[in-house]
Amino acid sequence: MTTGFPGRELRLEGSTRPLAALYSRNAKAVIARGLLATRSSNGLVLVSGFFEPVLYLLSMGIGLGALVGELDGPDGRPISYAAYIAPALLAVSAMNGAVYDSTWNVFFKMNFAKLYQGMLYTSLGPLDVAIGEIFLALLRGALYATGFTTVMALMGLLTTPVALLMIPVSVVIAFGFASFGMAITSFMKTFQQMEWVNFVMLPMFLFSATFYPLSVYPQGIQWFIQALPLWHGVELLRQISVASFGPATLIHLGYFVIMIAVGMLLTTLRLRKLFLK
Amino acid sequence: MISAQRLSKHYGDFRAVDGISFDVPAGEAFGLLGPNGAGKSTTMRMIGGVSQRTSGQLTIMGLDPEEHGPEVRAHLGVVPQQDNLDEELRVRDNLIVYGRYFGLPMSYLGPKADELLEFAQLTDKASAKVDALSGGMKRRLTIARSLINEPRILLLDEPTTGLDPQARHILWDRLFRLKEAGVTLILTTHYMDEAEQLCDRLVVVDKGQIMAEGSPAQLIRDHSTREVLELRFGSERNTTVAAELQGIGERLEPLPDRVLIYARDGEAALEEVSARGLKPLTSLVRRSSLEDVFLRLTGRSLVD
């Protein structure tokens, strides 16, 4: 060993930087670790996350689409059923991926793999870990969105280059869900409680105007659905897919900006509860 | 280097750590000795700044680890009770990636990782998967990993639990070398021999409180006799025969499986036992150990 400090006391200065207790500006090390771990593990998990929405699109879009025929698109012009549900499925996939990564994945790495336990005994603070994990979740989401949009193009569902904006915007949607998901995970202590996450997500997936227009519901239920994040994601991507923008577009986007801000604030406030007990 | 004043950690009504105070100067090997659940690991976690104390003062290298966790931990190496190696990474990558968490550059980490693999006798396992390693190898890798940032303070939580004797001796040798290099060691253990081998000074902890403090030799001197006579009369008779042994040695400790007689001269005590016409199945004279100190202080043995 080359180490040697014969019995000298060391006194540290102590930084006065804000968040010095929680953050060491080194989230990139967490990201580098995630990329290395993904490279050395089998890519099966990655692939399954890509295929899920594609399978929905094929079965529902082509199968059900044959029965349904055409619907009115966001701009009033008729579009095929597949073109109607494809942006919605992209929003759902952004939600599912982000929520899975920020809840189950974080919960598992925290309580079972003890990965964070090791990380947090280094210079890393909990905010470094949170930012790193969220970034990785978004990177994965961006990959899926690119893949799914490619499939849409191959199926002839893209009619305008503007539709490519769905890729970055679905990352914004994923960010909203991931930042909130991590905050929620800080309240979870058991697997049973984690099941509640699925219990909320499945109905949100089925009822957020994913497969049919919101107008089928009575007014009260419409308001309720409109308060939920997934509906805003579905509408936003659907509008982008046909390049039909209006004041509502800004409202949908604004919803996610606020969701990200509140989610990150809550996550930061709950970091000690999440990582330090 | 470390100063704790009336340090406490409560979980609801449970007092895991209940007002302990100690100071550790630079370069010392300091031990926390106690049974499972005594509060040793919780104390370690508070030193690392990953557990928030309920009350009391704690400074590490002049800083509060709760307020300056990342800065304090930059000079800390931690070997947790359970290995938490990154199972998704290979052996050498475990060291490199861990070093990156400290923000260390690759130009430093490459040679350092190789040096540590050498130190841990894992050079030929560099590109092996972690789950292919034996328990002793994983432990050595965990210790190697804790040294990647050349820490001033090394926290070792039950470093040799679950290892075979040979692996333990290799580890002790490695820890000795670190101590010689001036690293401050904080060690928890429930093994007496480990504490006696490695610690300059230790505290005996039970139920979150410090029962005694001193060097191993000093603790034995203060709380036990020089020698101990262990007698076994068979599990039925150990307690009943205790009455007939009264007055031999300085103190008598009847346990379910054996009777301990604390005496300055164990052989003389054994002769006296024979003189009273008692014939134990086995007898053993040995020197007092920290186990006896612990038994004396808490009325319980260390390993349940």
TrEMBL record, chain A:
Q: Which domain of life is it from?
A: Bacteria
Tell where it localizes: Cell membrane; Membrane
Locate the transmembrane regions by residue number. Answer: 43-67, 79-99, 120-143, 163-184, 196-214, 250-271
An MF annotation (GO) of this entry: ABC-type transporter activity
Q: Where is the ABC transmembrane type-2 domain?
A: 44-274
The UniProt similarity line reads:
Belongs to the ABC-2 integral membrane protein family.
Put simply, this protein is called Transport permease protein
